[in-house]
Amino acid sequence: MRDAYDLVIRGGAIVDGTGAPSRPGDVAVRDGRIAAVGNLVQGAGAAAEIDASGLVVSPGFIDVHCHDDIALINIPGVEFKTAQGVATLVCGNCGLGAAPANEQFRQFYARGTEGVLGPVEEFTWRSHREFYDTVRAAKPSANAAFLAAHGTIRIAVMGLDRGPPSDEQMAVMKEHVREAMDAGAVGLSSGLIYVPGTFARTEELIELARVVEKYGGLYVSHIRNEGSGLLDAVAEAIHIGEEAGVPVQLSHHKASGEANFGLTEQSLPLIDEARARGVGVTMDAYPYVAASTALVAIARGGRLAPGLDPHDVLIASVKHQHEYEGKRVDEIASMMDLPVEDAVQRLLREEENTPVAVMFVMDEVDVRRVLQHPQCMIGSDGLPSPTGKPHPRLYGTFPRVLGRYVREEGLLSLEEGVRRMTSLPAQTFKLTDRGEVREGYWADLVVFDPAAIIDTGTYEDPRQYPRGISSVLVNGQLVVVDGSPRQVGAGQVLARG
Ligand SMILES: [Zn+2]
Protein backbone atom coordinates (compact mmCIF):
# COMPACT_ATOMS: atom_id res chain seq x y z
CA MET A 1 0.00 0.00 0.00
CA ARG A 2 1.21 3.48 -0.78
CA ASP A 3 2.08 5.78 2.11
CA ALA A 4 -0.32 8.61 2.80
CA TYR A 5 2.45 11.15 2.15
CA ASP A 6 5.67 11.25 0.17
CA LEU A 7 7.36 13.31 2.85
CA VAL A 8 6.56 14.85 6.21
CA ILE A 9 8.60 17.74 7.63
CA ARG A 10 8.01 17.29 11.31
CA GLY A 11 8.04 19.62 14.28
CA GLY A 12 9.26 22.86 12.71
CA ALA A 13 8.20 26.45 13.30
CA ILE A 14 6.04 27.20 10.28
CA VAL A 15 6.57 30.69 8.89
CA ASP A 16 3.89 30.50 6.24
CA GLY A 17 4.89 33.44 4.03
CA THR A 18 1.86 35.62 4.72
CA GLY A 19 3.57 37.52 7.52
CA ALA A 20 1.46 35.73 10.16
CA PRO A 21 3.26 34.75 13.38
CA SER A 22 5.15 31.47 13.16
CA ARG A 23 3.43 28.44 14.66
CA PRO A 24 4.65 24.95 15.45
CA GLY A 25 3.50 22.17 13.15
CA ASP A 26 4.18 19.56 10.49
CA VAL A 27 4.04 19.91 6.74
CA ALA A 28 3.13 16.93 4.60
CA VAL A 29 3.90 16.63 0.91
CA ARG A 30 2.27 14.44 -1.69
CA ASP A 31 2.53 14.50 -5.50
CA GLY A 32 4.49 17.74 -5.50
CA ARG A 33 1.97 19.68 -3.45
CA ILE A 34 1.48 20.49 0.20
CA ALA A 35 -1.01 17.84 1.33
CA ALA A 36 -1.48 18.88 4.96
CA VAL A 37 -0.29 21.51 7.43
CA GLY A 38 -0.72 21.17 11.18
CA ASN A 39 -0.19 18.55 13.83
CA LEU A 40 -0.07 15.25 12.01
CA VAL A 41 -0.21 12.10 14.08
CA GLN A 42 2.97 10.09 14.32
CA GLY A 43 2.96 7.13 12.01
CA ALA A 44 0.54 8.82 9.62
CA GLY A 45 2.44 6.99 6.94
CA ALA A 46 5.13 8.95 5.19
CA ALA A 47 7.70 7.52 2.81
CA ALA A 48 10.26 9.92 4.30
CA GLU A 49 10.55 12.36 7.17
CA ILE A 50 12.62 15.42 7.94
CA ASP A 51 13.04 16.37 11.58
CA ALA A 52 12.66 20.15 11.69
CA SER A 53 12.67 20.63 15.44
CA GLY A 54 14.35 23.93 16.27
CA LEU A 55 14.15 24.93 12.61
CA VAL A 56 11.89 27.12 10.51
CA VAL A 57 9.81 25.75 7.64
CA SER A 58 8.95 28.44 5.09
CA PRO A 59 7.83 28.66 1.47
CA GLY A 60 10.61 28.38 -1.11
CA PHE A 61 12.03 31.81 -1.84
CA ILE A 62 11.20 33.61 -5.07
CA ASP A 63 14.13 35.53 -6.55
CA VAL A 64 12.30 38.23 -8.49
CA HIS A 65 15.40 39.70 -10.09
CA CYS A 66 17.35 37.05 -11.96
CA HIS A 67 19.60 36.96 -14.98
CA ASP A 68 19.69 33.17 -15.08
CA ASP A 69 17.96 32.81 -18.48
CA ILE A 70 20.95 31.08 -20.06
CA ALA A 71 22.28 29.63 -16.79
CA LEU A 72 19.08 27.55 -16.54
CA ILE A 73 20.35 25.74 -19.64
CA ASN A 74 24.12 25.84 -18.98
CA ILE A 75 23.95 25.12 -15.23
CA PRO A 76 20.53 23.49 -14.72
CA GLY A 77 21.32 22.71 -11.08
CA VAL A 78 21.44 26.51 -10.44
CA GLU A 79 23.05 25.47 -7.15
CA PHE A 80 24.07 29.06 -6.39
CA LYS A 81 20.36 29.81 -6.06
CA THR A 82 18.85 26.63 -4.61
CA ALA A 83 21.47 26.56 -1.83
CA GLN A 84 20.03 29.96 -0.77
CA GLY A 85 16.54 28.49 -0.49
CA VAL A 86 15.43 29.88 -3.83
CA ALA A 87 12.79 27.73 -5.53
CA THR A 88 11.68 30.14 -8.26
CA LEU A 89 13.66 32.45 -10.53
CA VAL A 90 12.06 35.38 -12.32
CA CYS A 91 14.28 35.92 -15.38
CA GLY A 92 14.40 38.34 -18.30
CA ASN A 93 15.03 41.38 -16.12
CA CYS A 94 16.59 44.73 -17.10
CA GLY A 95 15.28 44.50 -20.66
CA LEU A 96 17.63 41.62 -21.40
CA GLY A 97 16.22 38.24 -22.35
CA ALA A 98 17.09 35.28 -24.51
CA ALA A 99 14.30 35.68 -27.07
CA PRO A 100 13.36 36.54 -29.75
CA ALA A 101 16.73 35.17 -30.85
CA ASN A 102 16.86 36.22 -34.46
CA GLU A 103 20.08 36.90 -36.37
CA GLN A 104 20.31 40.52 -35.19
CA PHE A 105 20.03 39.53 -31.55
CA ARG A 106 22.50 36.67 -31.97
CA GLN A 107 25.08 39.08 -33.38
CA PHE A 108 24.47 41.52 -30.55
CA TYR A 109 24.80 38.70 -28.02
CA ALA A 110 28.16 37.68 -29.45
CA ARG A 111 29.47 41.22 -28.90
CA GLY A 112 29.71 41.00 -25.10
CA THR A 113 26.37 39.92 -23.59
CA GLU A 114 27.76 36.46 -22.87
CA GLY A 115 29.82 38.12 -20.11
CA VAL A 116 26.56 38.90 -18.33
CA LEU A 117 24.22 35.99 -19.12
CA GLY A 118 26.79 33.31 -19.99
CA PRO A 119 27.99 31.71 -23.23
CA VAL A 120 25.50 30.29 -25.71
CA GLU A 121 26.99 27.47 -27.73
CA GLU A 122 24.14 27.46 -30.21
CA PHE A 123 20.86 29.35 -30.28
CA THR A 124 18.50 26.47 -30.94
CA TRP A 125 15.42 28.61 -30.28
CA ARG A 126 13.96 31.71 -31.81
CA SER A 127 10.61 32.61 -30.26
CA HIS A 128 9.83 33.01 -26.57
CA ARG A 129 7.83 29.80 -26.64
CA GLU A 130 10.76 27.89 -28.15
CA PHE A 131 13.09 29.34 -25.54
CA TYR A 132 10.79 28.32 -22.67
CA ASP A 133 10.64 24.81 -24.15
CA THR A 134 14.44 24.75 -24.28
CA VAL A 135 14.61 25.65 -20.59
CA ARG A 136 12.04 22.95 -19.82
CA ALA A 137 14.11 20.37 -21.70
CA ALA A 138 17.21 21.33 -19.68
CA LYS A 139 15.38 20.13 -16.53
CA PRO A 140 16.51 22.84 -14.13
CA SER A 141 16.35 22.32 -10.37
CA ALA A 142 14.36 25.52 -9.79
CA ASN A 143 11.15 26.92 -11.26
CA ALA A 144 11.50 29.75 -13.76
CA ALA A 145 9.17 32.53 -14.81
CA PHE A 146 10.07 34.98 -17.56
CA LEU A 147 9.56 38.60 -18.48
CA ALA A 148 9.45 39.70 -22.10
CA ALA A 149 12.54 41.88 -22.44
CA HIS A 150 12.18 45.23 -24.17
CA GLY A 151 15.88 45.59 -25.09
CA THR A 152 16.10 42.17 -26.68
CA ILE A 153 12.88 42.71 -28.61
CA ARG A 154 14.05 46.15 -29.75
CA ILE A 155 17.34 44.75 -31.06
CA ALA A 156 15.57 41.93 -32.85
CA VAL A 157 13.35 44.48 -34.62
CA MET A 158 15.42 47.67 -34.88
CA GLY A 159 19.03 46.63 -34.32
CA LEU A 160 20.87 49.48 -32.65
CA ASP A 161 18.77 52.30 -34.19
CA ARG A 162 18.58 55.24 -31.84
CA GLY A 163 15.43 56.78 -33.18
CA PRO A 164 11.84 56.00 -32.32
CA PRO A 165 10.35 52.94 -34.04
CA SER A 166 8.33 53.36 -37.22
CA ASP A 167 4.69 52.29 -37.06
CA GLU A 168 5.69 49.08 -38.74
CA GLN A 169 8.53 48.39 -36.28
CA MET A 170 6.23 49.14 -33.35
CA ALA A 171 3.71 46.66 -34.69
CA VAL A 172 6.39 43.95 -34.88
CA MET A 173 7.66 44.73 -31.37
CA LYS A 174 4.11 44.45 -30.03
CA GLU A 175 3.75 41.13 -31.79
CA HIS A 176 6.85 39.83 -29.98
CA VAL A 177 5.46 40.99 -26.63
CA ARG A 178 2.16 39.26 -27.42
CA GLU A 179 3.99 36.08 -28.38
CA ALA A 180 5.84 36.10 -25.05
CA MET A 181 2.65 36.75 -23.07
CA ASP A 182 0.80 34.01 -24.98
CA ALA A 183 3.64 31.65 -24.04
CA GLY A 184 3.21 32.52 -20.35
CA ALA A 185 5.48 35.52 -19.66
CA VAL A 186 4.62 37.42 -16.49
CA GLY A 187 5.21 40.90 -17.88
CA LEU A 188 7.56 43.24 -19.71
CA SER A 189 10.96 44.41 -18.47
CA SER A 190 13.10 47.34 -19.55
CA GLY A 191 16.68 48.43 -18.89
CA LEU A 192 16.85 52.12 -19.65
CA ILE A 193 20.54 52.72 -18.96
CA TYR A 194 21.56 50.03 -21.42
CA VAL A 195 21.84 49.88 -25.18
CA PRO A 196 19.27 49.79 -26.70
CA GLY A 197 16.78 50.48 -23.86
CA THR A 198 18.31 53.90 -23.39
CA PHE A 199 17.19 54.87 -26.92
CA ALA A 200 13.53 54.28 -26.09
CA ARG A 201 11.30 57.21 -25.28
CA THR A 202 8.60 56.99 -22.66
CA GLU A 203 5.86 56.69 -25.31
CA GLU A 204 7.41 53.56 -26.80
CA LEU A 205 7.41 51.87 -23.41
CA ILE A 206 3.82 52.89 -22.66
CA GLU A 207 2.66 51.45 -25.95
CA LEU A 208 4.39 48.12 -25.31
CA ALA A 209 3.19 48.01 -21.71
CA ARG A 210 -0.37 48.36 -23.02
CA VAL A 211 0.03 44.96 -24.69
CA VAL A 212 0.96 43.48 -21.32
CA GLU A 213 -2.07 45.11 -19.71
CA LYS A 214 -4.42 42.99 -21.81
CA TYR A 215 -2.89 39.88 -20.24
CA GLY A 216 -2.79 41.10 -16.65
CA GLY A 217 1.02 41.29 -16.64
CA LEU A 218 3.26 43.88 -15.02
CA TYR A 219 5.96 46.33 -16.11
CA VAL A 220 9.37 45.86 -14.48
CA SER A 221 12.09 48.43 -14.98
CA HIS A 222 15.72 49.09 -14.40
CA ILE A 223 14.91 52.79 -14.52
CA ARG A 224 16.65 55.45 -16.59
CA ASN A 225 18.75 56.90 -13.79
CA GLU A 226 19.63 55.64 -10.30
CA GLY A 227 21.89 58.61 -9.47
CA SER A 228 21.17 62.32 -9.55
CA GLY A 229 18.18 61.70 -11.84
CA LEU A 230 16.61 59.07 -9.57
CA LEU A 231 13.40 60.92 -8.78
CA ASP A 232 12.59 61.74 -12.42
CA ALA A 233 13.35 58.17 -13.39
CA VAL A 234 11.03 56.77 -10.71
CA ALA A 235 8.36 59.20 -11.87
CA GLU A 236 8.80 58.02 -15.47
CA ALA A 237 8.38 54.36 -14.50
CA ILE A 238 5.24 55.16 -12.50
CA HIS A 239 3.90 57.25 -15.39
CA ILE A 240 4.40 54.34 -17.80
CA GLY A 241 2.46 52.02 -15.50
CA GLU A 242 -0.27 54.56 -14.89
CA GLU A 243 -0.75 55.33 -18.60
CA ALA A 244 -0.72 51.69 -19.62
CA GLY A 245 -2.82 50.54 -16.68
CA VAL A 246 -0.29 48.01 -15.41
CA PRO A 247 1.46 47.53 -12.05
CA VAL A 248 5.09 48.68 -11.91
CA GLN A 249 8.04 46.93 -10.28
CA LEU A 250 11.13 49.10 -9.74
CA SER A 251 14.19 46.89 -10.07
CA HIS A 252 17.03 46.91 -7.52
CA HIS A 253 15.89 50.21 -6.04
CA LYS A 254 18.83 52.32 -4.90
CA ALA A 255 20.49 55.73 -4.78
CA SER A 256 23.80 55.42 -6.60
CA GLY A 257 26.84 57.66 -6.10
CA GLU A 258 28.00 59.50 -3.01
CA ALA A 259 26.43 62.79 -4.12
CA ASN A 260 23.05 61.05 -4.18
CA PHE A 261 23.16 59.25 -0.86
CA GLY A 262 19.90 59.78 0.97
CA LEU A 263 17.78 60.22 -2.16
CA THR A 264 15.72 57.15 -1.30
CA GLU A 265 14.19 59.32 1.40
CA GLN A 266 12.46 61.11 -1.48
CA SER A 267 12.01 58.23 -3.91
CA LEU A 268 10.06 56.00 -1.53
CA PRO A 269 7.35 58.64 -0.92
CA LEU A 270 6.84 58.82 -4.72
CA ILE A 271 6.00 55.13 -4.57
CA ASP A 272 3.66 55.61 -1.62
CA GLU A 273 1.89 58.52 -3.33
CA ALA A 274 1.36 56.50 -6.51
CA ARG A 275 0.01 53.60 -4.48
CA ALA A 276 -2.38 55.98 -2.75
CA ARG A 277 -3.68 56.94 -6.23
CA GLY A 278 -4.23 53.28 -6.99
CA VAL A 279 -1.14 52.53 -9.09
CA GLY A 280 0.36 49.20 -8.05
CA VAL A 281 4.00 50.11 -7.48
CA THR A 282 6.39 47.65 -5.85
CA MET A 283 10.15 47.16 -5.90
CA ASP A 284 12.99 44.79 -5.26
CA ALA A 285 16.42 45.21 -3.71
CA TYR A 286 19.53 43.22 -2.86
CA PRO A 287 21.17 43.62 0.56
CA TYR A 288 24.58 45.03 -0.43
CA VAL A 289 26.17 48.46 -0.92
CA ALA A 290 27.83 47.38 -4.16
CA ALA A 291 26.10 47.12 -7.53
CA SER A 292 27.22 45.05 -10.50
CA THR A 293 26.78 45.26 -14.23
CA ALA A 294 28.58 45.05 -17.57
CA LEU A 295 31.66 47.31 -17.56
CA VAL A 296 30.69 48.59 -20.99
CA ALA A 297 27.45 50.00 -19.53
CA ILE A 298 29.30 52.20 -17.02
CA ALA A 299 32.31 53.02 -19.17
CA ARG A 300 31.32 53.93 -22.69
CA GLY A 301 34.45 54.51 -24.73
CA GLY A 302 36.61 53.80 -21.69
CA ARG A 303 35.45 56.78 -19.63
CA LEU A 304 33.87 55.79 -16.33
CA ALA A 305 30.42 57.27 -15.70
CA PRO A 306 30.47 60.62 -13.88
CA GLY A 307 31.13 60.29 -10.15
CA LEU A 308 32.60 56.79 -10.41
CA ASP A 309 35.99 56.52 -8.74
CA PRO A 310 38.21 53.88 -10.43
CA HIS A 311 39.08 52.54 -7.00
CA ASP A 312 35.39 51.80 -6.35
CA VAL A 313 35.11 49.63 -9.46
CA LEU A 314 36.18 46.01 -9.21
CA ILE A 315 36.43 43.74 -12.25
CA ALA A 316 34.44 40.59 -11.41
CA SER A 317 34.91 38.52 -14.53
CA VAL A 318 36.49 38.64 -17.99
CA LYS A 319 36.73 36.21 -20.87
CA HIS A 320 40.48 35.74 -21.31
CA GLN A 321 42.88 37.52 -18.93
CA HIS A 322 41.70 36.13 -15.64
CA GLU A 323 44.52 37.87 -13.75
CA TYR A 324 42.34 41.00 -13.81
CA GLU A 325 39.46 39.34 -11.97
CA GLY A 326 39.05 40.63 -8.45
CA LYS A 327 41.23 43.70 -9.19
CA ARG A 328 40.08 47.31 -8.97
CA VAL A 329 40.25 49.50 -12.04
CA ASP A 330 42.99 51.75 -10.60
CA GLU A 331 45.09 48.64 -9.92
CA ILE A 332 44.51 47.36 -13.43
CA ALA A 333 45.58 50.73 -14.82
CA SER A 334 48.88 50.47 -12.94
CA MET A 335 49.31 46.83 -14.01
CA MET A 336 48.93 48.01 -17.60
CA ASP A 337 50.94 51.18 -16.91
CA LEU A 338 48.24 53.26 -18.59
CA PRO A 339 45.95 56.11 -17.58
CA VAL A 340 42.60 54.81 -16.31
CA GLU A 341 40.62 55.71 -19.42
CA ASP A 342 43.08 53.98 -21.75
CA ALA A 343 43.28 50.95 -19.47
CA VAL A 344 39.50 50.55 -19.42
CA GLN A 345 39.37 50.97 -23.18
CA ARG A 346 42.02 48.33 -23.66
CA LEU A 347 40.33 45.94 -21.24
CA LEU A 348 36.99 46.28 -23.07
CA ARG A 349 38.66 45.75 -26.44
CA GLU A 350 40.82 42.77 -25.47
CA GLU A 351 38.00 41.16 -23.52
CA GLU A 352 35.46 41.71 -26.30
CA ASN A 353 33.13 43.80 -24.11
CA THR A 354 32.58 40.88 -21.71
CA PRO A 355 33.96 42.31 -18.43
CA VAL A 356 31.49 42.51 -15.56
CA ALA A 357 32.15 45.12 -12.88
CA VAL A 358 31.22 45.43 -9.21
CA MET A 359 30.81 49.05 -8.11
CA PHE A 360 30.79 50.27 -4.51
CA VAL A 361 28.29 53.06 -5.02
CA MET A 362 25.63 52.83 -2.31
CA ASP A 363 25.15 53.91 1.26
CA GLU A 364 24.09 51.42 3.91
CA VAL A 365 21.44 53.86 5.18
CA ASP A 366 19.68 53.81 1.78
CA VAL A 367 19.98 50.03 1.54
CA ARG A 368 18.25 49.65 4.91
CA ARG A 369 15.61 52.24 4.17
CA VAL A 370 14.63 50.44 0.97
CA LEU A 371 14.67 46.99 2.58
CA GLN A 372 12.38 48.26 5.33
CA HIS A 373 9.69 49.41 2.91
CA PRO A 374 6.74 46.99 3.07
CA GLN A 375 6.55 46.79 -0.73
CA CYS A 376 10.18 45.79 -1.18
CA MET A 377 10.83 42.23 -2.32
CA ILE A 378 14.21 40.56 -2.43
CA GLY A 379 15.91 40.11 -5.79
CA SER A 380 19.50 38.96 -6.10
CA ASP A 381 20.32 40.52 -9.49
CA GLY A 382 23.08 37.91 -9.50
CA LEU A 383 25.07 37.62 -12.73
CA PRO A 384 25.90 33.94 -13.21
CA SER A 385 29.37 34.33 -14.75
CA PRO A 386 30.96 30.92 -15.21
CA THR A 387 34.36 32.38 -14.31
CA GLY A 388 35.81 34.99 -12.03
CA LYS A 389 34.56 36.53 -8.83
CA PRO A 390 30.90 37.44 -9.30
CA HIS A 391 29.21 39.86 -6.89
CA PRO A 392 28.52 37.77 -3.76
CA ARG A 393 24.79 38.47 -4.12
CA LEU A 394 24.73 35.58 -6.62
CA TYR A 395 25.28 33.15 -3.74
CA GLY A 396 24.23 35.05 -0.64
CA THR A 397 21.29 37.44 -1.08
CA PHE A 398 18.51 35.57 0.75
CA PRO A 399 20.50 34.19 3.72
CA ARG A 400 22.09 37.63 4.11
CA VAL A 401 18.69 39.28 4.51
CA LEU A 402 17.59 36.66 7.04
CA GLY A 403 20.88 36.51 8.92
CA ARG A 404 22.12 40.04 8.88
CA TYR A 405 19.05 42.25 8.53
CA VAL A 406 16.47 40.08 10.28
CA ARG A 407 18.41 38.31 13.04
CA GLU A 408 21.40 40.53 13.74
CA GLU A 409 19.89 43.95 13.14
CA GLY A 410 16.20 43.36 13.69
CA LEU A 411 15.35 45.54 10.69
CA LEU A 412 12.44 43.22 9.87
CA SER A 413 10.75 40.45 11.79
CA LEU A 414 11.44 36.94 10.57
CA GLU A 415 7.85 36.61 9.36
CA GLU A 416 8.04 39.90 7.47
CA GLY A 417 11.42 39.05 5.94
CA VAL A 418 10.02 35.74 4.68
CA ARG A 419 6.87 37.45 3.33
CA ARG A 420 9.03 39.70 1.13
CA MET A 421 10.69 36.59 -0.35
CA THR A 422 7.52 34.54 -0.84
CA SER A 423 3.87 35.65 -0.86
CA LEU A 424 4.55 39.27 -1.87
CA PRO A 425 6.43 38.25 -5.04
CA ALA A 426 4.02 35.38 -5.77
CA GLN A 427 1.07 37.81 -5.70
CA THR A 428 2.89 40.56 -7.60
CA PHE A 429 4.12 38.27 -10.40
CA LYS A 430 0.96 36.15 -10.36
CA LEU A 431 2.64 32.86 -9.58
CA THR A 432 -0.42 30.82 -8.66
CA ASP A 433 -0.39 28.42 -5.71
CA ARG A 434 3.09 29.43 -4.59
CA GLY A 435 4.63 31.64 -1.93
CA GLU A 436 2.75 30.23 1.06
CA VAL A 437 2.85 27.14 3.22
CA ARG A 438 -0.73 26.22 2.60
CA GLU A 439 -2.58 23.02 1.82
CA GLY A 440 -2.95 22.56 -1.93
CA TYR A 441 -0.07 24.88 -2.80
CA TRP A 442 3.01 23.57 -4.60
CA ALA A 443 5.52 22.12 -2.18
CA ASP A 444 8.30 24.70 -2.64
CA LEU A 445 9.73 24.69 0.88
CA VAL A 446 12.83 25.68 2.83
CA VAL A 447 13.98 24.31 6.17
CA PHE A 448 16.48 26.60 7.87
CA ASP A 449 17.96 27.42 11.25
CA PRO A 450 16.97 31.02 12.08
CA ALA A 451 19.83 31.23 14.58
CA ALA A 452 22.47 30.21 12.06
CA ILE A 453 21.36 31.26 8.59
CA ILE A 454 23.92 33.59 6.98
CA ASP A 455 25.72 34.25 3.72
CA THR A 456 29.42 33.38 3.69
CA GLY A 457 30.72 34.73 0.38
CA THR A 458 32.84 37.87 0.16
CA TYR A 459 33.88 40.11 -2.71
CA GLU A 460 37.28 38.37 -2.67
CA ASP A 461 35.82 34.87 -2.40
CA PRO A 462 32.17 35.01 -3.50
CA ARG A 463 31.49 31.44 -4.57
CA GLN A 464 30.48 30.14 -1.14
CA TYR A 465 27.26 28.44 -0.21
CA PRO A 466 25.47 29.94 2.78
CA ARG A 467 25.14 28.37 6.21
CA GLY A 468 21.99 27.37 8.06
CA ILE A 469 19.79 26.06 5.23
CA SER A 470 19.39 22.33 5.56
CA SER A 471 16.64 21.32 3.09
CA VAL A 472 15.06 22.89 0.05
CA LEU A 473 12.17 21.39 -1.87
CA VAL A 474 10.98 22.38 -5.32
CA ASN A 475 7.62 20.94 -6.34
CA GLY A 476 7.99 18.37 -3.58
CA GLN A 477 11.46 17.20 -4.59
CA LEU A 478 14.56 17.75 -2.47
CA VAL A 479 17.08 19.91 -4.30
CA VAL A 480 19.14 20.67 -1.17
CA VAL A 481 19.88 17.85 1.27
CA ASP A 482 21.76 18.50 4.52
CA GLY A 483 22.84 21.85 3.16
CA SER A 484 24.22 20.46 -0.10
CA PRO A 485 22.52 21.38 -3.37
CA ARG A 486 22.12 18.69 -5.99
CA GLN A 487 20.84 18.74 -9.52
CA VAL A 488 17.32 17.37 -9.70
CA GLY A 489 15.04 18.25 -12.58
CA ALA A 490 12.36 19.44 -10.19
CA GLY A 491 11.67 22.86 -11.69
CA GLN A 492 8.84 23.94 -13.92
CA VAL A 493 8.54 26.83 -16.34
CA LEU A 494 5.79 28.85 -14.73
CA ALA A 495 3.13 30.66 -16.67
CA ARG A 496 1.47 33.86 -15.43
CA GLY A 497 -1.66 33.31 -13.40
ZN1 LIG B 1 19.37 46.07 -13.75
Task: Output the keywords.
single chain, 497 residues, Urease, subunit C, domain 1, TIM Barrel, 9-stranded mixed sheet, 8-stranded parallel sheet, 16 helices, binds zinc ion
Task: Describe what this molecule looks like in 3D.
α7 packs across α8 (230-244), α8 runs parallel beside α9 (264-276) and α11 packs across α12 (340-350). Strands 1, 2, 3, 4, 5, 17, 18, 19 and 20 form a nine-stranded mixed β-sheet that branches. An eight-stranded parallel β-sheet has the order 6-7-8-9-10-11-12-16. 57% of the residues are buried. β1 (7-14) and β2 (23-30) form a beta hairpin. The protein is of the alpha/beta class. The longest helix has 16 residues, at 167-182. Helices cover 32% and strands 20% of the residues. The protein is globular and about 70 Å long. It has three domains: 7-59 and 446-485, Urease, subunit C, domain 1, CATH 2.30.40.10; 61-289 and 362-432, Alpha-Beta Barrel (TIM Barrel), CATH 3.20.20; 298-357, no CATH class. Zinc ion is lined by residues 94, 191, 222, 251-252.
Question: What would CATH call the class of the largest domain?
Answer: Alpha Beta
Distance between the termini: 36 Å
Low-confidence runs:
none
**For this entry, what is the oligomeric state of its chains?**
single chain
Q: By CATH's scheme, which homologous superfamily of the largest domain applies?
A: Metal-dependent hydrolases
The radius of gyration over CA amounts to 22 Å
The profile of the biggest β sheet is: 9 strands, mixed
Number of domains: 3
Q: How large is the share of residues in beta strands?
A: 15-25%
- CATH topology heading of the largest domain: TIM Barrel
Q: Report the helical percentage.
A: 25-40%
Total beta strands: 20
Bound molecules: zinc ion
> Under the CATH scheme, which architecture of the largest domain would be assigned?
Alpha-Beta Barrel
Shape: globular
Helical stretch count?
A: 16
